[in-house]
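User: Could you go from structure to sequence for me? I need the amino acid at each position, not a summary. Structure tokens:
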């Protein structure tokens, strides 16, 4: 049996755990301070229980911010469950500098680090359809355990050449996605005086024709019907990601991103727990 340790249990990791259970050679251990039971998994609620583990083959983590990522790395260094070659797959959306700090903590403790920020919906997580942005050492490319894990949880794996490039790209990717959502708030036909029937036609066009079709087909109906309580990704997390991107990707030099983060910060004061799709709804000044 291969022991797989999952750090945290949230929207995306719930789907990951579900799919990992399909491999009968995996023993799934979940560390969560808030989870009481989970069918088929061993639940740990205290860090001391984690540190007492041994013979862990892989650790999969997805922290809500990179401060938690580095703090975890500092706690586990030189702990007994890091065997020579224990694989640490981290999916946190994080600043490249923090990813590098965590990577060095793991590697200095003889662990193997796999940088793997991911994207995908809650449904995609449950269906094993995540996309992974990866960097790992060449000798891990053919690692059987990694291949088995990736096959269960992801549909696409994209390999970057240098360490921290996946994380830098993920921040760029997330910010671009937020900008596309915000464009719906600006250009949604509902705000421009079309008749009811003509608005239906306009929505059909923007959801099926042209460059905007993919985002509108995915999000327009949700935005127009104000369905922001079924959260796949919190608005507060979007704000965190853009702050990271401004600091370490855009370096404070892209005026449009600075404006965008100002709008998100205003909205986040009252809607931080809502789904980030709320960015596509126009807010009256």
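Assistant: Here is the amino acid at each position, in order:
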């Amino acid at each position: 049996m291969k022991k797989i340790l999952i750090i945290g249990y949230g929207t995306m990791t719930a789907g990951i755990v579900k799919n990992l259970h399909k491999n009968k050679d995996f023993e799934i251990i979940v560390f969560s301070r808030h989870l009481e039971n989970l069918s088929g998994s061993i639940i740990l609620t205290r860090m001391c229980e984690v540190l007492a583990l041994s013979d862990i083959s892989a650790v999969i983590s997805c922290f809500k911010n990179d401060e938690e990522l580095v703090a975890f790395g500092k706690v586990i260094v030189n702990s007994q469950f890091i065997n020579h070659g224990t694989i640490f797959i981290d999916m946190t959306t994080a600043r490249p500098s923090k990813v590098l700090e965590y990577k060095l903590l793991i590697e200095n403790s003889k662990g193997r680090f796999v940088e793997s920020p991911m994207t995908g919906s809650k449904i995609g997580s449950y269906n094993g359809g995540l996309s992974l942005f990866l960097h790992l050492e060449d000798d891990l490319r053919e690692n059987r355990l990694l291949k088995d894990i990736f096959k269960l949880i992801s549909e696409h794996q994209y390999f970057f050449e240098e360490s921290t490039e996946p994380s830098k790209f993920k921040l760029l990717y997330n910010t671009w996605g937020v900008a596309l959502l915000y464009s719906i708030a600006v250009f949604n036909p509902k705000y421009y005086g079309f008749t009811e029937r003509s608005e239906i036609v306009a929505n059909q066009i923007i959801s099926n024709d042209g460059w905007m079709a993919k985002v509108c087909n995915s999000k327009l109906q949700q935005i127009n019907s104000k369905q922001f309580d079924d959260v796949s990704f919190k608005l507060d997390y979007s704000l965190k990601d853009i702050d990271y991107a401004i600091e370490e990707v855009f370096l404070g030099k892209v005026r449009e991103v600075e404006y965008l983060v100002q709008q998100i910060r205003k909205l986040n004061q009252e809607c931080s727990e809502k789904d980030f799709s709320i960015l596509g709804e126009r807010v009256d000044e």
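One structural detail worth keeping in mind: The two ends are 58 Å apart (CA to CA).
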